[in-house]
């Protein structure tokens, strides 16, 4: 009997604990959707259903995958930038690198009737129907960094990968290797758009200098460990490589490790892409000399929220459909200055 | 619901094996105590009942919590809207279907880690058949389901004949399926667009992404139908009884004339078929196939099975519990998300629920052994 009642108590305790966790989790955030209030019915032609400077608005952001460093930076930038707008409440859903999950996230935002949807679709085609559905229910949609297919969204904000690659190429052609030499490229995951465009752009950039020769191009799938292995082999096959361009900073770090392994630090310039300001990111890597340069792939958070402001607070009837956020070339000369400008 | 009370854990009722042998004599060889059948037959106490229906109870709890804490519009809880409920079922349909297959494997004493990769492979295979080979929807679906079943049977056969643990065999199967998926797709994503032109899929396949009467998604309906059929299979057929017997006490099952290997292999075949079904729905809903899809789905499915009260030691469990477990996970995430709870806290909440479910089982098990 005693064991019995003890079991009852423990069981009761467990279920009570579970309920409390749920209750706490919910009540701590229960201020959620309920806070969308005020504002008035939008004037005819406005992009939003409800807008005006006095209302409060919920913006749902469907992130593709919180686990990637770049995407964490996007979240952080958005959270920092949204502080400028006391009328906005930003809610971030994590698609966990799974289109199926992200579709569910967007469906939930639709159920909640958020005032504006921001999304970085994990994959274009799978997310297109649900995003169209949101757009057709007259919820404005701002796509960040990646696009769905067709035209069922309000605006797109993102960097220009081709141009970023081209600027890296131009920097190599005119500054690093103006006298010519051998160059290698570490590509991101094959068939992904940024990998294709950055590589293509870089080749265009270095083509301006006829004395530069691209001797090796290999994918390392965005991964530093794979980049280390791949570049180690490249370097043994082509010992005269003077510059390696990596489609992202993680692979550039991998290339640096390969150089270290062969005692060739300083003999080969390493250029990355992304330029995240985090301690493990590319800007710090430039500062401490691991990378020669990197190109910032901008998150576009500020630009996206500025669009949200025009749509929700100013009742805009149209906004720019494509906002290209410019990149910055980071070298030792400007790395510290760029870091100092990053909002904490 | 969980185990029909007329089915003893150790042996099928037809054998008439003395309970003493079943319950005690073979226990040491299994390395863990087996509850006597007599204990199972004693009138269930409140705690036992609680555990037997733990996932249903927990689902009700989450459901009530969902209504109470749901944000409201015009006084109506958003959680309870038809569309939201349909969305919940849809969101868990793929992992739920996998979990149903996994339930059979786990009750029979195995585990299948390959299911997520098989989903990815099936999605790619379906897309390739439709887009590149111009197959019609129905034959493509049938072929892929059968192929998934064969893949499962092969894993089961390797595990049984070579006496390698299912964990290892299906871990290898995961790698093989993922590799095959990448080869089949040529390392690319496959977009599925519909029409009669070359490299367009048969429009009949597009219905998988439909909503019946504009409300119930087809994948959700398939999930519920699969669950119902599987529950009948497990609870009312000879095969179902054999699955319990094999997982509960292998030697007793063998002595009573059950082909243990064949039953185990069959559960893997069933699990493979359901994983493939899930992959077909996946590509049908997303109009897209990515060879990397389904990564980690095996873990979500196992979570649903465990929450549903199925024992990882085998011999105990129910399909209804698994359905409730899967729906619980979906409803929980939905409630949390509707309340704008931080996405990372949602992961933690899921983890706590799994531990609570497992703790409940252990508690009752240790109780009934005394």
Q: Cα distance, first to last residue of chain B? A: 25 Å
Main interface by residue count: A-B, 50 and 60 residues
**Which regions of chain A have little confidence, pLDDT < 50, spanning 5+ residues?**
1-5, 7-14, 26-35
Oligomer: heterodimer
Structural class of chain A: alpha/beta
Strand residue content of chain B: under 5%
Order of helices and strands of chain A: HEEEHEHEHEEHEHEHEHEHEHEEH
Number of helices of chain A: 11
Please give the count of helices of chain B.
Answer: 16
Q: Can you put this structure into words, describing what you see?
A:
The complex is a heterodimer of chains A (344) and B (370). With 344 residues, chain A is of the alpha/beta class. Chain A is 44% helix and 19% strand. In chain A, the strands form three sheets. In chain A, strands 4-3-5-6-7-13 form a six-stranded parallel sheet, sandwiched between helices. Chain A has a six-stranded mixed sheet with strand order 9-8-10-11-12-14, sandwiched between helices. In chain A, strands 1-2 form a two-stranded antiparallel ribbon. In chain A, helix 6 (193-206) links the parallel strand 8 (181-187) and strand 9. The longest helix of chain A is centred in the N-terminal third of the chain and has 28 residues, at 2-29. Chain A starts with a helix and ends with a helix. The model of chain A is unreliable at 1-5, 7-14 and 26-35 (pLDDT under 50). Chain B is mainly α and 370 residues long. Helices cover 67% and strands 3% of the residues of chain B. Chain B has 16 helices and six strands. In chain B, the strands form three sheets. A two-stranded antiparallel ribbon of chain B has the order 1-2. In chain B, a hairpin with a 2-residue loop joins strand 1 and strand 2. In chain B, helix 5 (54-69) packs parallel to helix 15 and helix 6 (82-107) packs parallel to helix 10. The longest helix of chain B has 27 residues, at 260-286. Chains A and B meet through helix 1, strand 4, helix 3 and helix 4 of A and helix 4, helix 5, strand 1, helix 6 and helix 13 of B.
């Amino acid at each position: 009997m005693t064991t019995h009642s003890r079991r009852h108590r423990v069981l009761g305790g467990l279920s009570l604990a579970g309920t409390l966790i749920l209750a706490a989790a919910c009540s701590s955030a229960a201020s959620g959707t309920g806070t969308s209030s005020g504002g008035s019915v939008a004037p005819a032609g406005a992009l939003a259903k409800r807008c005006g400077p006095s209302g409060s608005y919920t913006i749902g952001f469907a992130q593709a995958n919180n686990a990637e460093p770049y995407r964490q930076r996007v979240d952080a930038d958005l959270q920092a930038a949204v502080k400028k707008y006391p009328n906005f409440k930003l809610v971030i859903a994590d698609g966990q690198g799974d289109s199926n999950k992200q579709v569910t996230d967007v469906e939930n935002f639709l159920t909640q009737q958020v005032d504006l949807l921001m999304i970085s679709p994990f994959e274009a085609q799978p997310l297109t129907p649900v995003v169209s559905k949101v757009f057709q229910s007259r919820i404005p949609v701002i796509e960040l960094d990646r696009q769905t297919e067709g035209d069922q969204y309000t605006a797109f904000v993102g960097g220009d990968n081709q141009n970023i690659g081209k600027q890296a190429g131009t920097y190599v052609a005119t500054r690093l290797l103006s006298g010519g030499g051998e160059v290698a490229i570490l590509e991101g995951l094959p068939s992904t758009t940024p990998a294709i465009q950055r590589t293509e752009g870089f080749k265009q950039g270095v083509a301006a200098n006829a004395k530069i020769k691209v001797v090796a191009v290999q994918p390392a799938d965005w991964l530093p460990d794979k980049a280390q292995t791949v570049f180690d082999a490249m370097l043994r096959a082509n010992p005269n490589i003077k510059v390696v361009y990596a489609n992202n900073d993680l692979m550039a770090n991998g290339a640096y490790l390969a150089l270290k392994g062969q005692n060739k630090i300083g003999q080969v310039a390493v250029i990355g892409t992304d330029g995240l300001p985090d301690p493990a990111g590319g800007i710090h890597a430039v500062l401490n000399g691991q990378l020669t340069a990197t190109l910032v792939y901008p998150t576009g958070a500020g630009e996206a929220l500025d669009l949200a402001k025009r749509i929700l607070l100013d009742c805009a009837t149209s906004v720019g459909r494509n906002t290209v956020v410019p990149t910055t070339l980071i070298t030792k000369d400007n790395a510290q200055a760029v870091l100092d400008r990053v909002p904490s | 619901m969980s185990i029909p009370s007329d089915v003893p854990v150790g042996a099928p009722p037809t054998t008439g094996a003395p309970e003493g042998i079943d319950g005690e004599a073979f226990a040491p060889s299994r390395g863990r105590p087996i509850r006597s059948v007599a204990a199972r037959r004693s009138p269930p106490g409140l705690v036992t009942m609680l555990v037997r229906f733990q996932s249903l109870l927990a689902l009700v709890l989450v459901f009530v919590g969902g209504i109470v804490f749901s944000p409201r519009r015009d006084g109506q809880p958003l959680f309870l809207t038809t569309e939201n409920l349909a969305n919940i079922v849809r969101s868990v349909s793929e992992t739920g279907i996998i979990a149903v297959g996994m339930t059979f494997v786990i009750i029979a004493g195995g585990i299948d880690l390959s299911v997520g990769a098989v989903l990815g492979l099936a999605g790619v295979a379906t897309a390739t058949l439709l887009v590149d080979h111009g197959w019609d929807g129905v034959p493509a679906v049938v072929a892929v389901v059968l192929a998934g079943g064969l893949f499962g049977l092969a894993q089961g056969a390797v595990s049984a004949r070579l006496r390698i643990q299912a964990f290892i065999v299906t871990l290898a199967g995961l790698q093989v399926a993922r590799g095959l998926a990448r080869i089949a797709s040529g390392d690319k994503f496959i977009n599925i667009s519909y029409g009669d032109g070359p490299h367009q899929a048969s429009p009949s396949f597009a219905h998988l992404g439909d909503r019946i009467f504009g409300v119930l998604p087809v994948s959700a309906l398939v999930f519920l139908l699969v669950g119902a059929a599987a529950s009948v299979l497990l609870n009312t057929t000879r095969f179902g009884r054999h699955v319990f017997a094999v997982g509960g006490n292998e030697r007793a099952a063998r002595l009573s004339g059950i082909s243990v290997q064949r039953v185990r292999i069959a559960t893997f075949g069933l699990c493979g078929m359901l994983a493939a079904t899930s992959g077909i729905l996946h590509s049908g809903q997303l109009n897209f196939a990515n060879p990397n899809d389904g990564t980690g789905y095996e873990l979500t499915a196992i979570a649903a099975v465990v929450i549903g009260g199925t024992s990882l030691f085998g011999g105990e469990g129910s399909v209804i519990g698994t359905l409730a477990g899967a729906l619980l996970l979906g409803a929980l995430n939905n409630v949390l998300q509707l309340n704008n709870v931080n996405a990372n806290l949602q992961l933690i909440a899921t983890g706590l629920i799994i531990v609570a479910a497992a703790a409940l089982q252990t508690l009752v098990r240790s109780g009934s052994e005394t």
